[in-house]
Amino acid sequence: MNPIKMQKRIEILDWYHLMENLHKTEASKNQIEQLKADLWMGQMTTAINYLNQEQPIRGHQFSNYLKKHASRIVNYHYLRLYNVINLICYFWDSFSIVT
């Protein structure tokens, strides 16, 4: 039996895939930069409101994508600032899972 029990699994949408989907919109460079800034800080609601206001082509699809993955979008700035990703990887590598 595995002595380490996880209370809850947390999934994080990686920045690469978030940006990949953002660039499927036909937003202007300024709109993309604003959305990137909002999403980097984890401000998904602000990004959705901005999309609704600016209405770039395919913006509605991206807005739906954000809503669908809302629980997986985090404050990426915080993760980077406090080096959380490296800590998670270190913790994960420090024990083995018995199946």
Brief summary of the model shown:
This protein is mainly α. Helix content is 58%, strand content 0%.
Structural summary, described in words:
The chain has 99 residues and is mainly alpha-helical. Helix content is 58%, strand content 0%. It contains 6 helices and no strands. α2 packs antiparallel against α3 and α3 runs antiparallel to α4. It is globular and about 45 Å long. The termini are close together. The C terminus is likely disordered.
Residue windows where pLDDT falls under 50 for at least 5 positions: 89-99
The number of helical elements comes to 6
Largest sheet: none
* Helix/strand structural class: mainly alpha
Give me the strand/helix succession. HHHHHH
Number of strands: 0
Distance between the termini: 9 Å
Estimate percent helicity. Answer: 55-70%
**Average residue-wise pLDDT:** 82
Beta-strand proportion: under 5%
Radius of gyration: 17 Å
The geometry reads as globular
Which features characterize this protein?
99 residues; mainly alpha; 6 helices; globular; disordered C terminus
Write the layout of secondary structure elements.
Layout: H1 15-22, H2 29-40, H3 44-54, H4 59-68, H5 76-81, H6 84-93
